[in-house]
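Hey, can you fold this one?
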Amino acid sequence: MGAGEMKPKATGGFRLRSRLVAVVVAALTVAGLVGVVAGSGQADARINGTGLQNNFSIDACGMPTNGAFGNKSMAPGRVNVRTWFKPGNQRTVIMLDGMRAQYDYSGWEINTNIQELVKRGVNVVEPIGGPASFYTNWNAPSNFNGQQRRYMWDCVIQNRLVPALKKRGYQGKNGKYAIMGISSGGNAALSLAAHRPDLYYAAGSLSGYNFLSAPGMHTMIRLAMLDVAPAPWNVDAMWGPPWDPRWYDNDPSMLINRMHGMKIFVGSGNGLFGRYNALPNVFDDLFKGSTLEVLAFTQAKAFEGLALINGLPVMSHYANGTHAWGYWQDMVWNAYAQGFFR
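Sure. Predicted structure:
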């Protein structure tokens, strides 16, 4: 959507139902503001725990290597991509990280075993970096923390990574890939797929924020970004102020009608402690992970309800759990069992 375009219009019935959902989400958003950073409940660390690696780098669309802070020269750089590839696999999934993405390894590799999908017919692709980026093209650099170049992650994923995968022989369904992400990478996965249905046959959001236009969400994201290194980030540099059309253009709930024909998966915990909550992470999991996951749960349910109204089938998985890697690992394997990658 261009800067001069109006936000998407809705029918009367859709608008009424959306407002009812928004009221519920808004109430729980306020509750979630007290804990806007992710909990740390862990699965086992698995760096280099799976074979069949095939790593490469791609052009960073003008960003310096290691993000928009890069090096003294700030010269255009590269984005590292770690993959697990097996000749003969007929499916490939791009896995996006969350708000605290690092520049050495993806949280998926650090904390989960989902790389084992490569042994089940699905190549796994993990682009590295992009903390607080939402995997989108920002309007401007974040002036709060001295960012020198604006993020260009939409360009990296859509215009650099996907062509690189095709060139290297990563197979997909009818030439298309699956894409999934956690937390801020979850709603990004849905948005990226909705904007480019020619590239993706399936998209999944795990504890993502799938209803960004709900009251209070802009404030929630603003507060969350203040705590992400290198802090603080200015959310207004991403998509502008709350009334900017770009917020609607990146809101999965506003893009549902662009998702018809795709497989869509949403998953979330309910904020209650489960199998991955244990010492020494109980404090963070309770006061941060639980509140954040309650918010993600309401967002997932709101999106699923709006999808139902619009005739979009959605695969889903809900369970006891907080905003933590062990539960996201389980969601991926649940999606696999439901046929998400087929």
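Residues 282-309 form the longest helix (28 residues). Let me know if you want another pass with a different chain boundary.
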